[in-house]
Amino acid sequence: MEEHLLVKMAKRQDKKAMEKLLQSNYSILKGYLLKMTLNPTLADDLTQETMLKAVLNISKYEHRGKFSTWLITIGTNLHRDQLRKNKRLVYSEEHMELVDHHNIEEEFIKKIEYGNLMKVLKEIPEEKRVVLILKHYYDYSYLEIAEILDCPIGTIRSRLHYAIKVLQKTMKGGEDIE
């Protein structure tokens, strides 16, 4: 069944439609939150909290994009709230091993060894890392990312440029790249 029909049914309190929407988008959301947090336990918690918020607020969903985009927006906002509350999350090396390596499309990212990729992602500031993940792991457009993060497209491009520079520098073994 098409997503927009499931959404309509879910808005009318159809529990099976809502369940199907959540099930079909669970792995996308969970994978995103794993890459964002680099912490499987936190990603699990945020995934569950996002799903709960989606169920409670399905009537507020406006069909402007994919349902997964709405879930990612909710998850991103929950993660930001978590960061504000805790000021700073500590990522351990042990958690980085558990992060799933998923659908990386850019050549320069493919060239970085898996373990090194997780270490590099850890070094990229959160506001820049989220743009890199949404663009190159999930193939969102600049406009979609701007809507998810509620900031101008120019800011999105700048953040992505910075993140790519960090990745390129890592690939070159720490050499400065112009």
UniProtKB/TrEMBL annotation:
Source species, domain of life: Bacteria
Gene3D superfamilies: 1.10.1740.10, Winged helix-like DNA-binding domain superfamily/Winged helix DNA-binding domain
Residues in RNA polymerase sigma-70 region domain copies: 21-88
InterPro entries (UniProt xref): RNA_pol_sigma-70-like, RNA_pol_sigma-70_dom, RNA_pol_sigma70_r2, RNA_pol_sigma70_r4_t2, RNA_pol_sigma_r2, RNA_pol_sigma_r3/r4-like, WH-like_DNA-bd_sf
Residue stretches making up the RNA polymerase sigma factor 70 region 4 type domain: 116-165
Keyword annotations from UniProtKB, A to Z: Sigma factor, Transcription, Transcription regulation
Keyword set includes Transcription: yes
Signal peptide start-end: none
UniProt xrefs under PANTHER family: RNA POLYMERASE ECF-TYPE SIGMA FACTO (PTHR43133), RNA POLYMERASE SIGMA FACTOR SIGV (PTHR43133:SF60)
Protein family per UniProt: Belongs to the sigma-70 factor family. ECF subfamily.
Classification via NCBIfam families: PRK09638.1, sigma70-ECF
The protein, known as: RNA polymerase sigma-70 factor (ECF subfamily)
Species assigned in the record: Alkaliphilus hydrothermalis
